[in-house]
Amino acid sequence: MAKAFFNTAETFRPGARTLPGAYYTSAEVFAEERERIGRRFWHCVGRAADLAQPGDYFLAEIAGESLIVVRDRGGTARALYNVCRHRGTRLCEAAEGRLSETIQCPYHAWTYRLDGALIGAPHMQDVPGFDKREYPLHQTALDEWHGFLFVSLALDPDPLEALLAPLDERVAPFGLATLRRGHRADYDVRANWKLIFQNYSECLHCPVIHPELSSVLPYTSGANDLVDGLVLGGYMTIAPPHESATLSGRACAAPFPALSADDRRRAYYYTVFPNLMLSLHPDYVVAYQVWPLAADRSRVRCDWLFHPAAAGAAFRPDDAIGFWDVTNRQDWHICEQSQLGVQSRVYQPGPYSKRESLSVQFDREVLKALGHGSPKA
């Protein structure tokens, strides 16, 4: 996979500086992000495998909107607003589960098929002109990419396929659609969502913050290939004698069968604006959903994904899970310390180094999405 991709000259903009404090602390900026980013872009909400059977569902919250992500009786995945068309009541409370063949409002028993069509409305037959066909559940765009489900609240979003096209060939050898989740962890991080993305986008901090990670993946190794736009990232080289990013340094499973010899010595790290971070290792994948909760608080959902054939004594998922749980907690802690610092009245934007170029590009996408020019300190 790798050699042909890494011929893009990465550009660094001299004089690039971090964002002003208001972008991390202001309730007004956070509200603007909810409208201009939360309601306009595609967001990864989970895996198609989470909807294995008709009736399987989970709830997703995007920009303050609750959605029922469900597989209908015909096998189609849908994103239905969790809002009854009668009096606006929330239809589902449990975070996930299985519905029978309908969704019924707990207030006045309006009943919907899993495709959103209204099929029952008690006593509405006595209302002149009432037509159930005029009151389906509202729904919004849902699409699937390599086993990941994405939702957009935009009325006419840009095609997801076009957005993620730069990653298609890069991720193909990992067989993402076939992978199965081996572990999930939710982290509450007392930091702005952008600090989490900026931290993920550079490893200049790794020797200081991540001694375990730095021994496996030297921060000066590798290269970035996607250096502009909504998808950013590149690879790092796994240092011998390590075989993968695990606590023991050994692979936790057999390498993905389609990987090249080069890719078996590399780990790939990509961000998809505005909420997916994707870590690809020779033997497993980690996917992060980043959800802004407030200007100074985020929730990160982390899924560890493994090949469905991984089994037996050679399969040691805890080796990978433990490695990234330690590393994640180190990252979240330093992001929280950054949040405390940017809240200070003496904080001013500081200069980025060349090894933070992807963070610079991420900032540019934030400003572009918000319709802001280059901010002043």
Number of helices: 8
- Silhouette: globular
Number of domains: 2
CATH class of the largest domain equals Alpha Beta
Mean pLDDT: 94
Relative strand content: 25-35%
Q: How many beta-strand segments?
A: 17
Describe the structure in your own words.
The strands form three sheets. A seven-stranded antiparallel sheet has the order 1-10-9-4-3-2-5. It has a seven-stranded antiparallel sheet with strand order 11-17-16-15-14-13-12, sandwiched between helices. The chain has a three-stranded antiparallel sheet with strand order 6-7-8, with no helix packed on it. The protein has helices at residues 22-25, 27-38, 160-171, 193-200, 206-209, 211-216, 317-342, 357-370; strands spanning 42-47, 56-62, 65-71, 77-81, 96-98, 102-104, 111-113, 118-120, 139-145, 148-152, 180-189, 223-226, 231-237, 266-272, 276-280, 285-294, 297-306. Mean pLDDT is 94; it is low at 1-9. It is α+β, with helices and mostly antiparallel strands. The two termini are 42 Å apart. It has two domains: 22-39 and 167-370, Naphthalene 1,2-dioxygenase Alpha Subunit, Chain A, domain 1; 51-142, Rieske Iron-sulfur Protein.
